[in-house]
Each structure stands twice: as structure tokens, then as C-alpha cells.
């Protein structure tokens, strides 16, 4: 192998080596703990999501729509919308979907199936959500794309942030361990970003497919980010210049 060449490895070769990935989510009090407990690797949550969501929807007793749905909202398919949610006019929700208590779904939001939103999450104006998890208080408030991704508790992405989920060549998206150039076979042709609890992502940033951000990391605006980053990283936009 040439110097600097990236080595491909199977995920099986890393079993039992959880310390090679950053701390992401504290799930002790999460309503979705059951989704995460059987995931061998962080990205396995995306593989388990469909079955978990279906099971959760089937377990609901009583009405599945528990918040006011105003005129001008389109809903179709199987979904649960819990109490205290604000659903604004112009929202389009295609199930399966789970919208937890006190969520805010803003005008122009497009929920495109396979979405699991925890209590108090914000799904924003002119934003699209597809096959993703937003843990409690996660916020994607303006002009965002969140596909095949997980946003941790109280994570926030600024206006225009894109969680890109598909390679231009259509190949399986690799993941990476901390401090390694090895490309791990995720088995996922669509894999956006895994964002830890309390992360802040600045406006108009793009997270490339397979990006993993440890908890409480900060990404400056207008950044282009790839790879796996440890907890409490601060990722600067190298193109930004300040006056002397």
C-alpha cells in the first residue's frame, strides 16, 4: 500500500473496540433507548430504524394524532403526533413518522418518511427530513436537509446546513474510526451524519456522507466537514479570514 493510501476494513474487524469512536449520545433518559441498545456500531442505528419505528407505531394505544392539525397541513401514511406539538400551515408529513411531545414543525417542512423526532425537537421551515432520528430538543430550524442521519440531544444546525447522505459515485458510504485513515465498510449506500449531543453546526455548512461528530463539538459557519471527530472538537473554516 502506498503512503497515505486509505485502507478498507470490514466493520466486523472492529467489534469490541467502541473506544475507537467518540462519545455521541447519553441515552439514559431517552424515549428511544431501545433503538440504540442493540446497535453494534453508531451507524447501525440507521439500519435498525425502520423496524423500530414500525414496532413503536404498532404499540400505540388510543388516538395517534394528539395535537391540533390546522388547515393546509398534508398528512399521509402511518404516524404518531403526540400532545403539545405546534404544526404550522404548509407542513407535509408522509409516514411512517413519530413526532414526540411538544415538537415544533414549521411551515414548509417536508417529512419524507422514516422520521423519529424526540420531545421538543424543532423541524424547521423549508427543511426536509428523511429516514433520520432527532433526539430530544434537537433543532434543525431553517433550510436544512437531514437525511439518513442522527442528531443528538439539544444538537443544533444553523440555517442552510446540509447533512449530505449520498456519494457522487453511488458507492457504499464508508465510516472512519478516530485518528485513522482506514475506511470502514458501513454497508450503507445512504449515510448522512451522526451528530453528538450538544453539537453546534454553523450556518451553510455541509457535512459530507459518513461524518461523525463527538458530543459538544462546534463547527464554524461555511465549513465542509468529513471524517470522525472526537468529543468537544472545534472545527474551523480554513477559508475564513479576520482583519488584522
UniProtKB/TrEMBL annotation:
The keyword Transferase applies. GO terms for molecular function: acyltransferase activity; nucleotidyltransferase activity. The keyword Acyltransferase applies. Keywords: Acyltransferase, Transferase. It holds the Pfam family Hexapep. In the N-terminal section; belongs to the N-acetylglucosamine-1-phosphate uridyltransferase family. This is Putative UDP-N-acetylglucosamine diphosphorylase. It comes from uncultured spirochete.
Amino acid at each position: 500500500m502506498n503512503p497515505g493510501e486509505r485502507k478498507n476494513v470490514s466493520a466486523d474487524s472492529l467489534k469490541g473496540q467502541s473506544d475507537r469512536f467518540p462519545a455521541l449520545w447519553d441515552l439514559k433518559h431517552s424515549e428511544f433507548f431501545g433503538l440504540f441498545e442493540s446497535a453494534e456500531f453508531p451507524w447501525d442505528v440507521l439500519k435498525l430504524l425502520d423496524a423500530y419505528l414500525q414496532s413503536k407505531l404498532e404499540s400505540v394505544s388510543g388516538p395517534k394524532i394528539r395535537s391540533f392539525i390546522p388547515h393546509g397541513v398534508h398528512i399521509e401514511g402511518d404516524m404518531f403526533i403526540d400532545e403539545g406539538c405546534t404544526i404550522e400551515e404548509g407542513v407535509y408529513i408522509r409516514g411512517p413518522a413519530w413526532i414526540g411531545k411538544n415538537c415544533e414543525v414549521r411551515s414548509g417542512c417536508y417529512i419524507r418518511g422514516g422520521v423519529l423526532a424526540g420531545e421538543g425537537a424543532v423541524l424547521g421551515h423549508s427543511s426536509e427530513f428523511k429516514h433520520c432520528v432527532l433526539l430530544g430538543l434537537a433543532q434543525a430550524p431553517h433550510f436544512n436537509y437531514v437525511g439518513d442521519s442522527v442528531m443528538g440531544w439539544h444538537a443544533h444546525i444553523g440555517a442552510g446546513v446540509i447533512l449530505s447522505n449520498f456519494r457522487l459515485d453511488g458507492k457504499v458510504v464508508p465510516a472512519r474510526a478516530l485518528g485513522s485513515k482506514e475506511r470502514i465498510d458501513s454497508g450503507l449506500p445512504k449515510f448522512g451524519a451522526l451528530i453528538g449531543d450538544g453539537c453546534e453546526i454553523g450556518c451553510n455548512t455541509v457535512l459530507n456522507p459518513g461524518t461523525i461528530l463527538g458530543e459538544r463539538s462546534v463547527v464554524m459557519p461555511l465549513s465542509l466537514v468529513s471524517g470522525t471527530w472526537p468529543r468537544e472538537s472545534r472545527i474551523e473554516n480554513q477559508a475564513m479570514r479576520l482583519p488584522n
